[in-house]
Amino acid sequence: MYFEHLFVSLHAVELKLTISKMYKKLFMTAAVMAACMQTNAQLAPDYKGTDNNNPISANIFCADPTSLEYNGRMYVYGSNDHQQFIANGKKGENTYGEIKSLVVFSTDDMVNWTFHGTIDTRKLCASWTNNPWYVGYGVSWAPSVTWRHNEENGKDEFFLYFCNSSHGVGVLTAESPVGPWKSPNKQLMVTYDTPGANKAGTNANFDPGVTIDENGVGWLSFGGLGPSQIMPEAARIIKLKPSMTQVDGSAVKIHAPYHFEANELNVINGKYVYTYCSNWAERKDSEWNAYKEEHGITASKPNTCTMCYMVSDNPMDPNSWVYKGVYGPHPGMGTNNNHSHLQKFGNNYYYFYHGASLMQEMQKRNVIGSDCSIFRSICVNKATVNETTHTISTVSPTLSGVKQIKNMNPYTLQQAETMASCGGVEYEDFTNIKKNTKVNTLNNEVSENLQVNIKPNSWINVRKVDFGTTGADRITITGKGTAKIDIRTSASPRATLASLEFSSEEMADITFEINSEKFKGVKNNIYFVVTEGEDFYMDAWKFTQVGATGIHEMEEGEAVKRESYDLSGRKLTGNSQQRGIIIEQYTDKNGVKHSSKRLSGK
Q1: Is beta strand 496-513 parallel, antiparallel or unpaired with respect to 23-27?
Q2: Element (H or E) spanning 512, and its range?
Q3: How many domains is the chain built from?
Q4: Domain of residue 567, residue span
Q5: What is the sign of the dihedral through the CA atoms of 330, 334, 340 and 344?
Q6: What are the tens digits of pLDDT across the range 492-534?
Q7: Statement to judge: residues 563 and 539 lie in one domain
Q8: CB neighbours (10 Å) of residue 293?
Q9: Which terminal CB of the chain, N or C, has fewer other CB atoms within 10 Å?
C-alpha cells in the first residue's frame, strides 16, 4: 500500500520545528561537500559482491526458504541460521538446536529485499502442552506458508507451518504476511500419533509443504529421513480441515524415489506438484531401470542431494504420483544439504534455495574461522515451468541471481532495512533488545518496526533507483543519533552525490536540500555510507521530486476519515496493540488523501 510521507514546509531561510507526541520532524539544508575533501576510509567489507543478487541477504544467515505472493510483493520465510551463529559465538558447526525463530523478507523487484525481522516461535509456542513423546516446543525449522481470502469473514488469512525438529509440524496464523502471529493450537498439528504419519523411532515428521488447491482445499506434505535406499517410504501427505489448523483424516504415503527431506507442494494448472530433496543412497542402475519400467517413465535417476519433483491429479492416491525428474541440483556453496521452493510471481516462476556463499566469503576474509560450517543463505534463480506439461527445467544456481523486474521508486517511503547489499549492518543481539538498544531486530515479533544500527564506515546499497527526468531536490532521513552520511553511486568517495550531517536526540525526520542535477535518471546503485557517527539508527528514507508540492498541515476538524496502518499496510483497529512506526492516513474535506507517520509506544 502506498503512503506518501508528509514533511513540514519551510521558507528558504526559515527553520521550523514541530513536535507531535513522540515524533519530531525537521527540515534543514544539506551541506553538500566536494568528494575531494572526504576521507577515504576503509568501508565495511562487501561479502555479497557488487554484481551479485544472491544471496538475498548480505548480513543474515537463513535457510529452508518458502514464499508467497501478496499484493504485488514476494514474501520469503526461512529458518533463522543466524540465531545459531550468534549462539555459537560466531564459530563452529550449525547444529540447528538454537534455531527458535523464523526470518521474513519481502520484495517487489526481486533484488532489493526488506528484512521484516523474525517470528519468535519460542515465545508464541511457550504455552504448548506436553506430549507423550516430546515435551512442548523445541525448535522451528523449514517453514512453509500459504494464504487465502476468507469469503465468510472478509479477511485475508495466512498460515505458516514449521517443524519442531523431527517430531512434528506446528502452525501459526495471522491476518497479514508479517503478522502479528499466534499459535491456534496448544501443541503440534502433526505428531507421531497422527494417523498415517511416521511413528516414533522410525522416520521423521518434519519439513512441511503446504498448498491450497483450486477448490480451496488445503494439503500438507511432510516426512523424511528413512533408510538409505531407493524407496525409503518416509514421505507423507494429508488433507487439512477448512480451518487449515487441523488435519482431516489420515496421512498417506507418497512413493518418492530416493526421498530424504525438504518437502514442498504447489498446484500448477490443476495438478499437484510435490518437490523434495533426494538422499545419499547408492544409485544402482538395475534398481532404477526396474523402477522406470514399473512406472512407465523415462527420467534419469537423480544425483544425491538434488531437488526432485513428482506430479499427481489425486494427491491421496499413492500410486497416482509420477516421478518427473530433477529440477534443482545441489548448489554447492559450502552446504551439505538442500531445500527449495517454487514460486510464481507475476508471470515468472522463481526457484528459492540455500547455499553458504556468504559464510565462505567471510571465511576467505578471515572474519570467521574455518571451523564455521553449514551457516546458510537464501538464494533465488529464475525457473522455467511448462504449465501445460507440468515440466520444470533444471535450474542453474548462480550468485548473479535474477534480474531486477522493476526500478525502485525513491519518492515513496523506503525502509532502511530494504537493501540489495550492505556492509557493517548487523542484527545480532538476541537478549533484552528493547531494554538494551531500543531497536527491534532479530528474535522480536515480526510485526514490529525495525531500525538499522549503522556504525561508521558501514553502508547500505539499493539498486536501479529511478529519479526520473526532473530529478530530486530533497531527501528526508528518518533516524536517531549523529551521523555524516554520504549518498554515492558506488563505494568510492569519488562517487559521492551529496553529504549530509544528521543529528537528533530522538527519532526524527530530517529533510535536506540536494543538487537535483546529480539526482536524475536511473542510478544502477545508490549507497548510503555513514562516514562518521555516534549511536546512529536509521529507520527510513525518501527523496522528494523537483516541483513536488509541499505541505499540507491538517487543521482541526478538517479530516473526514482517518485510518491507521502498520508498515505492511495492515489496517489497525482501535484494539490493535501496535508498537513502532504507525502510518496515519486521512482524507480532507476536498477528497484529497494525506499521510503521516508517528512512533507508537504501545
Answers
A1: parallel
A2: strand 496-513
A3: 3
A4: 559-600
A5: negative
A6: 999 999 999 999 999 899 999 999 999 999 999 999 999 999 9
A7: no
A8: 9
A9: C
CA separation, residue 98 to residues 88, 102, 394 (Å):
9, 12, 34
- Same domain? For 219 and 157 the reply is yes
Q: HSE of 183 in the Cβ direction (CA atoms, 13 Å)?
A: 21
Assigned C-alpha cell, 175: 491476518
Q: Is 274 inside any structural domain?
A: yes
From residue 526, give the alpha-carbon distance in Å to each of 93, 408, 463, 485, 544.
Answer: 36, 10, 6, 12, 15
Q: Reduced to 3 states, what is the DSSP secondary structure of residue 84?
A: helix
Locate 59 and state its grid cell: 548480513
Does 28 map to a domain? no
Half-sphere exposure of 556 (CA within 13 A, CB side): 0
Helix (H) or strand (E) holding 532: strand 522-545
Query: What are the grid coordinates assigned to 178, written together?
Result: 508479517
Identify residue 579 by its one-letter amino acid code: R
pTM above 0.70, yes or no: yes
Which contiguous run of DSSP H or E holds residue 598?
A: strand 593-601
Per-residue confidence (pLDDT) for residue 230, from 0 to 100 = 98
58-94 core/surface letters (b: 16 or more CB in 10 A; e: else):
bbbbbbbbbbbebeebbbbbbbbbbbbbbbbeeebeb
Instruction: Please report whether residue 36 resides in a domain.
Output: no
Kindly state the cell numbers that stand for 249: 483424516
Q: Are 355 and 335 in contact (CB under 8 A)?
A: yes
pLDDT, residue 586, reads: 59
State whether 375 and 466 are in the same domain.
Answer: no
The answer to whether 97 and 368 have CB atoms below 8 angstroms apart is no
E strand segments, 329-369: 340-345, 348-355
Q: Is 254 exposed, middle or buried (0-12, 13-18, 19+ CB in 10 A)?
A: buried
Check if the beta carbon of residue 497 is closer than 8 Å to that of residue 487. Answer: yes
Pairing of strands 377-383, 561-565: unpaired
Distance of CA 64 to the CA centre of its chain: 12
Q: Comparing C-alpha atoms, which of 239, 503, 296, 524 is closest to residue 404?
A: 524
Spatial contact of 422 and 58, defined as CB atoms under 8 Å apart: yes
pLDDT in the model for residue 334: 73
> What's the pLDDT tens digit per position in 56-72?
999 999 999 999 999 99
Cell of 337: 544439504
| 67 lies in some domain | yes
